[in-house]
Description:
The complex is a heterodimer of chains A (396) and B (329).
Chain A: H1 2-20, E1 27-33, H2 44-57, E2 61-62, E3 65-73, H3 78-92, E4 96-99, H4 103-112, E5 119-122, E6 138-140, H5 145-158, E7 163-169, H6 172-187, E8 191-198, H7 206-214, E9 219-223, H8 226-238, E10 244-247, H9 252-258, E11 267-270, H10 278-287, H11 297-316, H12 321-330, E12 333-334, E13 340-343, E14 349-350, E15 353-358, E16 371-377, H13 379-382
Chain B: H1 2-15, H2 25-44, H3 47-67, H4 77-93, H5 99-121, H6 126-146, E1 163-164, E2 168-169, H7 173-195, H8 198-208, H9 210-215, H10 220-246, H11 251-254, H12 256-269, H13 276-291, H14 297-311, H15 316-325
Antiparallel strand pairs in B: 1-2
Helix pairs in contact in B: 1-8, 2-7, 3-7, 3-10, 3-12, 3-13, 4-5, 4-6, 4-10, 4-12, 5-6, 5-10, 8-10, 12-13, 12-15, 13-14
Amino acid sequence: MAFGNFRSILFSGVALAALASPAAADIKIGLLTDLSGATSALTGKASQRAAEMAIADFGGEINGEKITLMVADHLAKPDVGLGIAREWVDRENVNVFLSVDNSAVALAVSDLIKDKDVAMFHGGSSSKLINENCGPNQVMMLLDTTALSRAITIPQIKAGSDKWYFIAVDYALGQDLMAKGSAAVKNAGGEVVGTALHSPQATDFSAFLLEAQSKGAKTIGLATFGTWQNAIAKQAQEFGVTAKLSPYYLGDTDIHSTGLETLQNISGAIQFYWDMNDKTRAFSTKFQEGYNRPPTFTNAYAYEFTHHYLTGVKATGSKDAKTVVQWMRDNPMPLINGDTATIREDGYTLRDVYTYQTKKPADSKGEWDYLEITGKVAAADIATPLSDSTCPLVKK
Amino acid sequence: MAGTAFLKTTRTAGVSQSQFLGFTKARAIFFLLFAALIAVGPQFLYPIFLIKVYCFIIFACGYNLLLGYTGLMSFGHAAFFGMGAYLCGYAATQWGLPFELSVLAGTVIAAAMGLVFGWIAIRRTGLYFAMITLALAQMVYFIAMQAPFTGGENGIQSIPRGTVLGFIDLSSNTTLYWVISVIVLAAVAFYNRIIHSPFGQVLRAVRNNPERAKSLGYNVDRFKLAAFTISAAMAGFAASLKTITFGIATLTDVSYVISTEVVLINLVGGIGTIFGPVVGSFFILSLEHFLAPYGPWVLLIQGIVFTVFVLLFRQGIVGELQKRFRTHL
């Protein structure tokens, strides 16, 4: 009886393997994303919807080859992500990895595809990915930690918020963001009055907030995410902290779950906001035909990069990863909001960034009306210059 | 009751003089079946998945030596597994050691930690023993999260596979598969040999009736400590092989999930059996692998499996089999 179970498991495994064996000539896009964890609200199923929209723009096929989209959950764990990626490369002949929205997972996959004919457009932000880990077949969709730090600090320092305090989550990414943020503040002529690391288990941040207040900070940089960030915003309000909060990562979805009431004193920088102009609004309407909320910046990326990649496949008539990615570099990438972006040889995407301020609850006209776009930061002002890159692909 | 069990095992061992390396006929047949399964496996299943199963077999064998044959339930084996993985990865990337020495490094560190943790934990038995091991493992997890050499949430990445003895290149999945296959067969044979050696007999005596073992002149604590250390070393060895295969060592390897998984594998396979870890690893890892697309449902199904086995098949799959065939597998 029990042995029968064991055997049937094996046989069902065989059956599954047979089902999974690929039809040879498809264009395969592997969306490796977070479907269950902390960033799943920002990416996950919504990014799948965005990628499907891009595929639909091409009628689901190019030069007679069907475009298929595979989706899997990397659980934000590099070992899980790498395992799935390896299997997709070995057994599914995947052509491109999309999303991979976690620096640790992106680093692991970047290593895997180094000498393979697979492209990757990842949502990691570790600067390593455009320096020593760069590759001819991979592109970074987000800003790296250096650019992100500059995008947040430079405009605010120009506007007079020159005293900064940083609260960072105590692991590698948080520490990296804090170090880059401090450097950016100093470079722009500001002053860092203090820093604090919080443990991933922390729920009480009042000591940090009061310290920031007493040291006269005008802005508190939040090198942290999700629930920690929400708790900090809530406690800042309860303690009447007057300094502005400035998060590195704040999605519309975070505001939606926490409420504008709590998050009304926040400013930062974002690459895409659905209510920015007519083009983004049109895209958002179409997006919502298949999803229950407007697209976040990460969803916009998934669409833009899939679209640009498929255009490249069509133009070059090839699925060779290096050829298509080279084409993507040589040709400007149209963005949803009407701008264009260019991809550098180190894999960094040069695009303008918009500064925002969260709206007062009274000014918000609807469920997803949260941000006020206040200005623009030119791509060249925040990107690490190529002359500083350690990426071997950069010719100096 | 416990005393009779001890006598019975002694007698079985005494009667079957013909066994080779601790293999009776039944066990030899099962071993050959396993070898045949390994030989045809890659025809049907993804070799990397099979390698992962084999690594867990080695890990679970080591654990069963402790739980099934010495009667000590540890909740801290993730510490040995995780640190074995990290040190193997570190040795291969930072010190540039070849395959054999990296794996050896991972095994040795796990054994050394096993010696220290065991020395602390064996002073207590039962629940207290389990709690001490759990506490120590959580401390190791915290260190892994904070110490710079583990790479935090990124883990140690880009671990090269290297070559065996300088001429067998492991970068191809097929070659790696056959190398690990030979290793896992050797490990199961080694495990079987330990259990059916005089040393193994004493371990079972310690499990069944520590007072009586003591009165016969055996230093019970020393045998427990030896079993704990061997068990930890096998965990480190398994983790090192897994690290080399996947090219990554991460916080997952050192998290408590690993400790519970190895308990579950043994429970499903059969605690105190030679082939329980083999069957259990195939069963549990297949569940995880083939149900992965259903996300959180895996945990629910694992929970149901756990409950079903505890309620209906307390001896595990292999335990039920050996009851039916009236033999020891």
